[in-house]
Structures are given as C-alpha cells and as structure tokens.
Amino acid sequence: MSAIIQIKGREHDAVAEIRTIADQAFSRAAGAPLVEGNHVRLLKDARENYPAWLDAIGSAKRYIHFESYIIHEDDTGRRFADALIAKAREGVHVRLIYDWVGGFGKTSRRFWDRLRAGGVEVRAITRRAWTHP
Known about the structure:
This protein is 47% helix and 20% strand. The chain starts with a strand and ends with a helix. Helix 2 (46-59) packs parallel to helix 3 (75-89). The protein has helices at 14-30, 46-59, 75-89, 100-103, 109-117, 127-130, and strands spanning 4-7, 10-13, 63-68, 93-99, 121-125. It is an alpha/beta fold.
C-alpha cells in the first residue's frame, strides 16, 4: 500500500513515513526493537479463542506459558489439560498459572494433580501474592 503525496514540491510516500514513525513509537514504548513478521488477530469470544489457543499449544516447540483467571474442570478444561500434558510429555516446558479465586469450586485437587503428574508446572496466584508488603 502506498500513498504518494506532495510536500513542498517533493513526493513522499506517506504510508512509509507513518509506518516509520509508528515503528519508532512502538519500539520506544516496548523498550525493545521491533521484530518483523509478527501479526495480530482479534479473537472475540470463546468460540474463536479456544480453538486458536489449542492450535498455539499444539504447535509449541520449546515452551508454553499459559495464564487464565478461571479454569473449570469441564470438557473444555479437560481438553486444555490434555493438550498441555501432551506437550509436556513431548519435552515442551509447560507452565500454567491461574487465579485461585477464579478456580475456587470449579476444579478439584485431582485435576491439578493430574496436570502436575503430566509434567505441567502449575501455580495458583493467591490474594497474598497480590498484596504489597
């Protein structure tokens, strides 16, 4: 895409200039240089999110860091647990962090023990972890 404009009698590619300025701003905000080839896809709800997340888990090669506020011990929760355990058994370093309050009454100790036994590093964030000393 290109938009050639005239400024003071000289042609400029406005899109390229805006992209350069945006790249500089994002790089400064992130505190790191930009890496080419990344893309963003907006996922609106569970129907779009869950398959994309499971695909990402399935394609992981070195590590998975998975964080969720609420995890239920239902068909969906077991599907995610199975996918994470499968990757851990392949040698992928899998870490799962969840909110203790969000999981309260939604999962059993057996659910978390199965993940741990399958090689997944599981940690719960508790209220104590949120408070300042």
